[in-house]
Design a protein that fits this description.
The protein has 322 residues and is an all-alpha fold. The longest helix is centred in the first third of the chain and has 29 residues. The N terminus and C terminus are likely disordered.
């Protein structure tokens, strides 16, 4: 018999090698960056943290999960899913992503929405759409990086323009692909998946839906920036707002890399890279650690509770609505 399983195995091996090399590269970069650091300076930078500003940052994090659920609610025009359930699912997904290997959080979302009658292909398509809008929500704040006198390095301005150009191209593609598809002429699983995916994109072309999802993404990014600003204040770091926007952009770009649970390593490397030349090693690492903790630690207990409350059977929302 022909060994039909060989190609998938070779692809899987290649992926593992690439992931391993990226982990090694990130780890090596962190070691080189932090080599010779006086840990007492790091502790001194962390010790001055003002818990009142940190509390504001945590509240901003919690609020941003709600605004993400608002975006999901706007995209679900063909399904009746209660908003409180979407909020609990969002917290559950973020908690799973914080403690599990990459991608597990989105599998949790697929599982919960499947119980609500949403096809897996539709959920995957909407996840990509939400990610697109999340990236798009950062664009208005990038003006601060390109603004004259922002004191941001030239490479950051170049990356900003490339980021904006890529999102412009993606916007055109989303609008074109989102045209209402005709029913597949022939039966087939792949044809049905493509048809379901394009059908799921249809509502995004409606001005009201586009505006609601875009506004939710913009508010979410504003809350992310608020959290970064308050953490900088908590650590008594006098950073320009443009640098904090660059931190968010650097974290966003690092999201495309394979990573450990909770973006461990890549997150810190992204923050250190964005603040290089503006902060010292100790202050930059302190900002990275506190900002990362603010994004991950509150989600774990809240998300764990949410997962306990969302052990639901199929079509629970429809039954509750009736």
């Amino acid at each position: 018999m022909t060994p039909t399983e060989s190609p998938p195995k070779s692809i899987s091996t290649r992926d593992r090698v690439i992931r391993t090399l990226l982990f090694v590269a990130v780890g090596t970069g962190l070691v080189i960056t932090l080599r010779g650091m006086d840990l007492s300076h790091l502790w001194a930078a962390l010790k001055v943290a003002d818990w009142r500003w940190l509390a504001v940052a945590v509240l901003a994090n919690v609020a941003s999960q709600v605004t993400r659920a608002v975006g999901w609610n706007a995209m679900f025009t063909e399904f009746r899913i209660r908003f409180p359930l979407l909020v609990r699912i969002e917290f559950a997904v973020q908690a799973a992503a914080a403690v599990s290997p990459e991608g597990v959080g989105e599998f949790v979302r697929i599982g919960y929405l499947s119980r609500e009658g949403v096809a897996r292909s539709v959920t995957v398509t909407l996840m990509m759409v939400r990610k697109f809008f999340s990236s798009l929500g950062l664009v208005p704040f990038l003006v601060l990086i390109c603004w004259p006198g922002s004191n941001v390095p030239g490479w950051a301005v170049a990356v900003t323009w490339m980021y904006a150009a890529l999102l412009t191209v993606l916007s055109v593609l989303v609008v074109r692909v989102a045209r209402t598809p005709s029913a597949p002429a022939r039966e087939g699983r792949l044809r049905k998946i493509v048809f379901d995916a394009r059908t799921a994109l249809g509502p995004v072309r409606r001005p009201r839906v586009f505006a609601e999802v875009g506004a939710a993404a913009l508010v979410t990014r504003a809350l992310d920036l608020l959290a970064a600003v308050t953490i900088a204040k908590a650590l008594d770091l006098r950073l320009p707002t443009a640098v904090l926007v660059l931190v968010l952009l650097s974290i966003e770009v690092s999201n495309v890399l394979p990573t450990l649970p909770g973006q461990l390593g890549t997150f810190e490397a992204a923050v250190l890279g964005a603040t290089a030349g503006t902060l010292g090693q100790a202050e930059g690492l302190a900002l990275a650690l506190v900002l990362h903790a603010q994004q991950v630690l509150p989600q774990i207990p809240v998300g764990t509770i949410a997962m306990g409350n969302t052990s639901i059977s199929r079509n629970r929302s429809k039954r509750d609505a009736s």
